[in-house]
Write a structure and sequence with these properties.
The chain is mainly β and 518 residues long. The chain is 1% helix and 41% strand. The protein has 2 domains: 1-6 and 26-73, no CATH class; 98-416 and 423-463, Pectate Lyase C-like (3 Solenoid), CATH 2.160.20. It is built from 1 helix and 46 strands. The longest helix has 5 residues, at 50-54.
């Protein structure tokens, strides 16, 4: 079995082997009018099946083009690698619906790229709904296993839906719409992974996520780098929406998670980072999270460092807005920053601070609580080893409560549904600062601070947010707002507010997510 200079079939050695194909060949696939005996090099001589595609070893510059509106049974598992600046491209040709691959549980995934580099996959519809739920079921699986660094895998404009995997949290065995995984005896990871403008719908357990055996910073750290998850829409997700695992410098932006944690009974969040460093989670909208076993829009989870959540919009999530957690100091969480976000009508609790999380900063956010909500704005609690949060700065935020907002601490365990019964205050938490905040409305046990204000912050139309960022102008400050230049100046503040206005370099900033002027 050999690899020819262009794009060549995997075949037994035969005396009449066809001539070597030219590198960069385009191959066409048409399940309606194609034939696997064709050469595949034009729409009029297209191949017919996935089996034919999977029998090939492709090389740099090849294109695999599926006819629009066609359908295929089985799994797409193409072979080969492209090269830097010359990837292998999968796409559609012609006008019409996306080419569709229905796996129906016959394989673990509808699309598998395994230990291969420089692939760009675009404009496919992928489903994997078996006769019953199963572990290890995916729409797309990207696997770097005993491989080293798997480079330049770009997925764009995929529609992944109807993946009925198990609803139980099982680490690597959890199902996903799109999964990237790294493991094996040889250290392996991804470099330059892009998942952009994809739609993931009605999948269990998770939407888009990662798995890595090399995520322990102290003993086995080999992170994936240049990971970008951008512009994806996720709806009707059984468990977690988007999770970043074992990465360094990942960017998660402009995604929409609309309805997650809908079917699983264990813990799940909308968008979160685990065992990762320097993750930026920004410009995302998360709504419709169900349940209170977690159920928050966002989560900075343990073994994570320097995770930044900024310019996000969270609304109508039953579990709340933000979870920051660590079970113990060995598996700690350090340096989380939550800034310039808007939370509207998130339920149960706004901020959950659990375990010995260290040096968290929460500033210039707006929290709006509608009239019929009675929630815990802050919950402080320990986790496994009885240690509490240490080092929390909460400044320049607007807490606007038409309902009731409470500030409590509670010892574990929580109630079976993940909620807490507590008493006012921080408990044994240490080095906690609340200052330069505005508390308006009904607050019970609000923290003291010498520069806090208890006045109407002068928002243009609080509570008027709907779907989308364009609906949020009501959270800008009116001209006579007492928040004008009333905040604490914070270094390394990101340089802009929620709407892109520059932050002052000389004056104190405004309180809230809106900066009116320099």
């Amino acid at each position: 079995m050999g690899v020819l200079a262009g794009c060549s079939p995997v075949r037994r050695l035969m005396a009449d082997r066809p001539a070597t194909e030219r590198a960069g060949t385009a191959y066409y696939v048409d399940s309606d009018g194609g034939d696997d005996d064709n050469d595949g090099t034009s729409p009029n001589s297209a191949w017919h099946s996935l089996d034919k595609v999977n029998s090939m070893i492709f090389s740099a510059g090849c294109r695999i083009l599926f006819k629009a509106g066609t359908r295929y049974s089985g799994r797409l598992k193409p072979k080969g690698s492209g090269a830097a600046g010359n990837p292998i491209v999968v796409d559609q040709y012609g006008e019409g619906d996306l080419p569709r691959i229905d796996t129906e549980g016959s394989f673990e995934e509808a699309l598998l790229l395994e230990n291969q580099d420089y692939w760009e996959v675009n404009h496919l519809e992928l489903t994997n709904h078996g006769p019953e739920r199963s572990e290890n079921r995916y729409g797309v699986r990207l696997s770097a296993w005993n491989y080293g660094i798997m480079k330049h895998i770009h997925l764009r404009n995929l529609y992944v839906h109807d993946v009925n995997a198990t609803l139980v949290k099982k680490d690597r065995a959890e199902g996903h719409g799109i999964l990237w995984e790294s493991g094996g005896l040889k250290r392996s990871c991804f470099d330059d992974l892009l998942i952009e403008d994809c739609r993931v719908e009605n999948v269990d357990r998770n939407g888009i996520g990662g798995y890595s055996k090399f995520k322990n910073r102290d003993t086995n750290w080999y992170p994936s780098r240049n990971i970008i998850l951008r512009g994806n829409i996720l709806e009707d997700i059984g468990g977690d929406g988007i999770k970043v695992v074992g990465c360094e410098g990942a960017l998660v932006e402009w995604n929409v998670v609309r309805g997650a944690h809908l079917r699983c009974q264990d813990n799940a969040c909308g968008i979160w980072a685990f065992a990762s460093e320097d993750t930026a989670i920004q410009f995302n909208e998360v709504s419709g999270m169900k349940g209170t076993t977690d159920g928050q829009a966002f989560d900075s989870d343990f073994r994570s460092r320097n995770t930044v959540f900024q310019y996000n919009y969270s609304h109508d999530n039953e579990g709340g807005f933000m979870l920051v957690c660590a079970p113990d100091t060995k598996r700690g969480n350090q340096g989380t920053v939550v800034r310039y976000n808007i939370s509207q009508n998130d339920g149960c609790r706004t901020f959950t601070m659990t375990g010995p999380v260290k040096n968290t900063q929460i500033y210039n956010n707006v929290i709006f609580i509608k009239e019929d909500l009675d929630i815990q704005v802050f919950v402080f609690s320990p986790w496994e080893d009885g240690q509490w949060p240490d080092g929390l700065s909460v400044c320049n935020n607007i807490f606007y409560a038409e309902g009731i907002g409470r500030y409590i601490h509670a010892t574990r365990p929580s109630n079976p549904d993940g909620t807490y019964i507590g008493i006012p205050g921080f408990g044994p938490s240490t080095n906690i600062r609340f200052d330069y905040n505005v508390y308006f409305g009904n607050h019970v046990g609000q923290p003291a601070g010498s520069h806090n204000l208890t006045v109407d912050p002068g928002l243009c139309s609080p509570g008027s947010g709907a779907e989308g960022f364009d609906s949020l102008k009501g959270y800008q400050l009116a001209e006579e707002s007492p928040c004008f230049h009333a905040g604490l100046k914070i270094d390394e503040n990101g340089g802009r507010d929620f709407w892109g206005n520059s932050l002052p370099s000389d004056n104190n900033p405004d309180i809230g997510a809106h900066q009116m002027s320099q």
